[in-house]
Amino acid sequence: MASVTFAQPALPARQPDGTPQKFADLVAFVASPSERFINCTALVVDGGMTAV
Question: Which of 4, 14, 45, 52 has the largest CB neighbor count within 10 A?
Fold first, then answer.
């Protein structure tokens, strides 16, 4: 995880990243009737840290 440690000073402060509301929003999005074609996938909720 050296790349994350290196990049953290350049990232804006987003405290806290994993709020219960953010996870609830994801569940509501996936469970909505208009998103019935989303299946067999892992949705990552990490504030964009996987892009670092």
Answer: 52
pLDDT digits (tens, 9 = 90+) for 12-46: 666 566 678 888 888 898 888 878 787 788 887 77
The Cα 26–Cα 11 span in angstroms is: 23
pLDDT of 6 strictly over 60: yes
Do 15 and 38 touch, CB atoms closer than 8 A?
no
CA distance 20 to 48: 17
